[in-house]
Design goal:
Chain lengths: 308, 110, 227
C-alpha cells in the first residue's frame, strides 16, 4: 500500500467519525500538528498557573484562598494530562518542556498579561476559563483519541473554575463602590485579550482548514469566538458591568452579538513576545526547572538505592 | 489504551536550548477504578522513578477530584499490546460468526 | 476554661494557616509539576484545617469574630503560631524538612486531640489528615522543639482532658524522628536550649509581619466588604 492509499483510508476513518489512536497510521503532518497543539495546550496550563498563583497569598478570605489554590493546582494537573497525551505521539516530556523553557515553543498569549488586582482573578476565571471551556468542549470530539479523552477529563474540572470566577465578579460588582470599580477595571483589561484567545480571524489562520478537515477541530476560530461572545455578553449584563466596546450591538437578523474591531496588531505583538509578562513567565519557569534538577536526580538516586 | 507503539516513530527534530539532557523518569500508565466493582480504565500516564512515587503522582494527578476507589500503575515498557493490524482478527466474533454470540441462541420461551 | 481553649485553638489554627500560606507560595514555582500538585495538596489541607480551628475559636470567644476576621484582621502580636512555620520557605529541601518536623509533631497532637473531651475539637482533629516527608535539617531543629514543649496553658488544658498531652507527644515525636534519621542515614542535630520559642505568646520573628502584610492587604483595604 502506498502513502496516497494510506492517506485516503486515514481520511475515510476521520470522515466516518473514528478515533485515531497512538499506534494507528497517520500522516506525519497530522502527527506534528497534534504534537504542536497538545504541547502548546500543556504549556499554557503550566504557565497559566503564574498569573493566578500570584494572588493566592493575597486572597481576601479563607474560602477564596482555598478556591484559588485548588484552581491553580488543577491547572498543573491539566498540564500533566496534556503532556501525557502528547507523549503518546513519540515526543518526550523533557523535550517539550525544553521547548517551553527556551522560548521556542508557544503557549496561549493570554497568560502574558499581568494580574494587577484581586478582581483580575474573577475576570480570568469567568472569561479566560469560559473561553477555554468552549474550545475544550469542542476538542472532546477531536479525532485523536488521547487528546479527546484528556479534554473530557479537563472539561469536568474546568466548569468549577468558570463558576468560581463569575461568582467572584458578581460579589465584587454588587459590593462596595471600590470593589465595583476593581471589577469594572478588570473586565476592561481582560475582555479584548480573551477574544483574541480564539486565534486570528479564519482568513488569517494558517492551520484552520487542515485541522477542520482532519476532525481535530470542529469549529473555526471565528465560530468559537462568536459562540463565546453570545454567551458572555448577557453574563456581563447580569453582573451588571459594562463591556469595553462602544460598537457592541445585537444583530436581530442573525441573532448574534457583534463586537467592534479587534486590535490584531496587539495580538501579533504579544504572540511574538512583546507582552508585558513574556519574559517574567519564562524566567519563572526556568528558575523552577533549575531548582528541579537536583530534586529529580535525588529522587532517582533514592529510588535506585531502595531497589538495589 | 495509550501504550507506546512498537513501530518506530520518527522523533520530531527539536531546535531547543543546548542545556544538557535532564534525567527523565520512566513512564507509567495509570488505570483508575471509579467505583467498587467497575473496571479499571486507562486515565493517562505519569513519570516517576519507582512504583511508590508513581502511585503518589497518579493519585495527585488522576484522583484529585472526582471519585476514585482504586489506582493501578504499570511501567509502560511492561505493557504488551496488539497492533492495529491485528484488529480485524481480534475482538469478538464478526457478523459472519453469529453462532459465537449469545443472541444466536433462542430460549424455549421465544 | 474557654479563654484557654480559645488560645489553644488559635495555636492550632495559626500554625496551619501560616504553614499553609508558606506552602502556597510554591504554587507555580515548584521544581517539578508533580511536586507543585503535592505541595498544593498539603497547603489545602493546612488551610482547610486552619479554617475549622479558627471558626471554632471565634465561636468560643463569643465576640462575633469568624475565621476570616481572625485570619485577616489580627496583628502579628496576636498570632499564636510557632516560629517554625513562619520561616521563609528557603529551597525545596528546607520546605520538605519543615514539613517533616511539623507533621511528626502534628500527627501525634491530632491523635491526642481526637480523644479530647471537647466534642467539636475532637471531631475536627479526627478529620484532619497529615502526610509525613523524610528529611531533617539543623537550622530548623531548634524551632521544632517549640511544637512539643508544653507551657502552663497546655498543662491546664491537658489536665481537663480538652487539650493534648505534649509531653507524651514529645516522646513519640523524638522516637519517630529518630527512626527517620536512622533510615536516611543522618545524625540528630544538637538541641538548642536557648532557641526562641515565643510564638505561642505572640513574640514572633520579623518574618511574620511581612507574611501577614501580604496575606491581609486586600482584605484590610476594603473594611467590611464581602468576597
Amino acid at each position: 500500500m502506498n502513502d496516497a492509499e494510506r492517506e485516503r483510508r486515514f481520511q475515510a476513518r476521520i470522515d466516518a467519525g473514528e478515533k485515531i489512536e497512538p499506534k494507528d497510521w497517520m500522516p506525519e503532518s497530522y502527527r506534528s500538528q497534534l504534537v504542536r497543539m497538545m504541547s502548546q495546550h500543556a504549556h499554557s496550563e503550566i504557565v497559566g498557573q503564574l498569573p493566578e498563583g500570584n494572588w493566592i497569598t493575597r486572597a481576601p478570605s479563607l474560602r477564596r484562598k482555598l478556591g484559588l489554590l485548588a484552581k491553580v493546582q488543577d491547572e498543573a494537573g491539566h498540564g500533566l494530562y496534556l503532556y501525557a497525551a502528547a507523549e503518546t505521539l513519540g515526543v518526550s516530556r523533557e523535550d517539550l518542556v525544553g521547548g517551553l523553557l527556551s522560548g521556542a515553543a508557544k503557549y496561549s498569549s493570554i497568560f502574558n498579561y499581568p494580574t494587577l488586582t484581586w478582581a483580575d482573578i474573577g475576570a480570568i476565571g469567568w472569561l479566560v476559563d469560559g473561553a477555554a471551556i468552549l474550545n475544550q468542549t469542542m476538542l472532546t470530539k477531536c479525532s485523536y483519541g488521547p487528546y479527546a479523552r484528556a479534554m473530557v477529563r479537563i472539561c469536568k474540572e474546568e466548569r468549577f473554575h468558570e463558576r468560581q470566577g463569575y461568582e467572584i465578579m458578581r460579589v465584587l460588582a454588587q459590593g462596595t463602590p471600590a470593589q465595583r470599580a476593581l471589577a469594572q477595571d478588570a473586565l476592561d483589561r481582560w475582555w479584548w485579550p480573551t477574544l483574541m484567545m480564539f486565534g486570528p480571524p479564519d482568513e488569517a489562520s494558517l492551520h484552520n482548514d487542515v485541522l477542520l478537515a482532519w476532525g481535530v477541530k470542529q469549529k473555526s476560530n471565528d465560530e468559537l469566538r462568536q459562540w463565546f461572545v453570545d454567551l458572555a455578553v448577557p453574563q456581563a449584563q447580569a453582573l451588571p458591568l459594562a463591556l469595553p466596546d462602544r460598537e457592541l450591538r445585537f444583530d436581530e437578523a442573525s441573532g448574534h452579538w457583534r463586537t467592534g474591531p479587534i486590535d490584531w496588531d496587539e495580538f501579533w505583538r504579544v504572540v511574538r513576545g512583546g507582552g508585558i509578562c513574556n519574559r517574567d513567565r519564562l524566567r519563572a519557569r526556568n528558575e523552577a526547572h533549575e531548582e528541579g534538577r537536583w530534586v529529580r536526580e535525588a529522587a532517582e538516586a533514592y529510588a535506585k538505592k531502595r531497589h538495589a | 489504551m495509550g501504550a507506546r507503539g512498537r513501530r518506530s516513530v520518527r522523533k520530531k527534530a527539536s531546535r531547543v536550548s543546548a542545556k544538557p539532557a535532564d534525567t527523565q523518569w520512566p513512564l507509567w500508565e495509570v488505570f483508575v477504578q471509579e467505583k467498587g466493582g467497575a473496571p479499571h480504565e486507562h486515565a493517562g500516564s505519569v513519570h516517576a522513578p519507582d512504583a511508590e512515587l508513581a502511585l503518589q503522582n497518579a493519585r495527585d494527578t488522576y484522583a484529585r477530584r472526582g471519585p476514585v476507589t482504586s489506582l493501578w500503575v504499570v511501567e509502560a515498557r511492561h505493557i504488551s499490546a496488539t497492533t492495529p493490524e491485528d484488529s480485524p482478527f481480534l475482538l469478538g466474533p464478526g457478523p459472519d460468526k453469529l453462532y459465537r454470540q449469545p443472541r444466536f441462541y433462542r430460549g424455549a420461551k421465544e | 476554661m474557654s479563654a484557654e481553649l480559645f488560645e489553644l485553638l488559635l495555636r492550632l489554627g495559626d500554625d496551619r494557616l501560616v504553614l499553609g500560606h508558606r506552602l502556597s507560595e510554591w504554587c507555580g514555582h515548584a521544581p517539578i509539576v508533580e511536586e507543585d500538585i503535592a505541595l498544593a495538596n498539603v497547603a489545602l489541607d493546612c488551610i482547610g484545617q486552619a479554617s475549622q480551628f479558627l471558626e471554632l475559636a471565634g465561636e468560643i470567644e463569643g465576640e462575633g469574630r469568624d475565621a476570616d476576621a481572625l485570619a485577616f484582621l489580627r496583628d502579628p502580636t496576636q498570632f499564636r503560631n510557632c516560629l517554625l512555620v513562619e520561616q521563609p520557605n528557603g529551597d525545596f529541601a528546607q520546605t520538605i524538612a519543615r514539613q517533616v518536623l511539623f507533621d511528626a509533631a502534628g500527627a501525634h497532637v491530632l491523635a491526642q486531640l481526637a480523644d479530647s473531651t471537647h466534642e467539636r475539637l475532637a471531631a475536627i482533629a479526627r478529620k484532619a489528615a497529615n502526610e509525613v516527608r523524610y528529611h531533617v535539617r539543623d537550622e530548623l531543629w531548634p524551632h521544632a522543639a517549640e511544637l512539643v514543649t508544653p507551657d502552663a496553658l497546655d498543662a491546664a488544658l491537658c489536665a481537663s482532658g480538652v487539650g493534648p498531652d505534649l509531653a507524651a507527644v514529645r516522646v513519640e515525636f523524638e522516637r519517630d524522628v529518630a527512626a527517620l534519621i536512622a533510615a536516611a542515614n543522618l545524625r540528630r542535630p544538637p538541641d538548642a536550649p536557648n532557641a526562641s520559642d515565643g510564638g505561642r505568646r505572640g513574640k514572633h520573628s520579623e518574618h511574620l509581619d511581612h507574611l501577614l502584610s501580604e496575606m491581609q492587604c486586600v482584605a484590610r483595604a476594603h473594611p467590611g466588604a464581602r468576597w
